[in-house]
Write a structure and sequence with these properties.
Blueprint (H helix, E strand, L loop, with lengths): L17 E5 L3 E4 L2 E2 H7 L2 H10 L5 H16 L1 H10 L5 H10 L9 H20 L3 H5 L8 H6 L6 H14 L6 H11 L4 H12 L7 H10 L4 H13 L17 H13 L3 H21 L5 H11 L7 H23 L13
Antiparallel strand pairs: 1-2, 2-3
Helix pairs in contact: 1-9, 2-3, 2-17, 3-6, 5-6, 5-11, 6-17, 9-14, 9-16, 9-17, 10-11, 10-17, 11-17, 12-16, 13-15, 14-16, 15-16
Amino acid sequence: MDYSPGLRGVIAGETSISTVGAEGKALSYRGVDAVDLTRSNNYQDTASLIVDDTLDGTNFTKYFNYHYNKICENEFYYNLFLSVREELHPMDVVRTVISSSGELKDVSSIEQTARMVALSSFVVAHYVNNDSEKIQGGLQIEEYLVSSALLPGQENTQILEALDDVLILYAEHGFNASTFACRVSASTRSDLTSSISAGIGTLKGELHGGANEEAIKLINSFSTVEEAIIGIKNKLFNKEKIMGFGHGVYKIKDPRSQVVKSWVEKLSIDENEINKFEIAKTIDATMKEEKDLFPNVDFYGGLLLDLLGFKSELFTPIFVVGRIAGWSAHYFEQRGQDVLIRPAAKYIGK
């Protein structure tokens, strides 16, 4: 039996949910191009497509509204949030709140998914604005329902649309590390809550979801374009890893990157924002010139979330909100296949 470190290139299962890296540059959900979805659909539609193979987000919208309001009215979740927020990273807070929610029985897959998205959105919303009344009243723009929940009180539809596109692009990505963790949990016939918790714990690592936090730290470490050129070349000379570039599956480009980059360009208005964008483009160009590497979604994605006003420690929790659709779909697919994932190990000891 051949050994592949990190299971690179190993086919570990079958899926009808998404294709990642087709022709080295494409991403589709249930056969629909993910970038096209950002142009013509919203996150509710996308989550419905990924989980239920339908572009009608009506049921997701209904269930999200119901569960989000129910969660906001439940003092248990708010008190739990307050009790752990000072001690834990926001990713740990999201995982704690979700793991405390237990399992919903005898409800549809889309309702279970919508509830998980609502729970994670509740946590992010309270980090953004810990005003319970404002948070509960923050669902006023139904077209961008989840974005409205994450940015309570925000009425600028352009900002909500940009965030909605981020959620769409984060929604699903094949057998990545966190999704595979979900599928391993599901393969034991565990419940959705446990599987999503496993996904959150895996996504937390900087080589996966945490890369967007590292990307904005890198961009913010330079004050000028000239500093960025010198700094990146020095890092490369010292063989330091530059987060946000290259990809394990895409070989030509990450199709999601251009969408978020376009939003950064469109929303950068003041001098400081424009300067950050110029620094980011300079880093991008230098990496292309020196290493022939392209930016993945995390590089400009981190800059976009920063531009939308989120603190960097919330970038990966926002990733969670979007990716729950994909995790849930893979959970239900794995449960349907009912095959225990149990790979062999290559023994190298005495």
